[in-house]
Write a structure and sequence with these properties.
about 100 residues, globular, about 30% helix, 4 helices
């Protein structure tokens, strides 16, 4: 069975060690199927890793939770709302569906 994709999470924005460019390049050299990166990305960093060939896709987890209009914000260079991490993995909608869309 062939592996469809590898998803590498870089939690350095939360204090974990950085996933180095060298490691990303080495994985890319060995693994030719879909490679996904995530962890504290903004649009600039995502574009660098995509354009450099380090990944095929970049996932935006926390940013997506706190920005229901994330695609529009990225396309228009609108500021991103910060997620309220104290509401993660708690019951109810608070912190999941109560973030507002950007008002310009």
């Amino acid at each position: 069975m062939e592996i469809a994709y590898i998803h590498i999470v870089d939690h350095s924005s939360m204090g974990a060690p950085v996933v180095s460019h060298e490691l990303k390049k080495e994985i890319r050299k060995i693994f030719r199927n879909t490679l996904i990166l995530s962890g504290g990305y903004d649009i600039e960093r995502a574009e660098i890793d995509i354009k450099s060939g380090h990944a095929d896709l970049v996932a935006f987890g926390r940013s997506f939770l706190s920005n229901p209009d994330l695609a529009e914000r990225l396309l228009n260079s609108y500021p991103l709302a910060d997620p309220n991490m104290s509401t993660f993995y708690t019951p109810g909608s608070k912190g999941y569906t109560d973030y507002p869309n950007y008002k310009n």
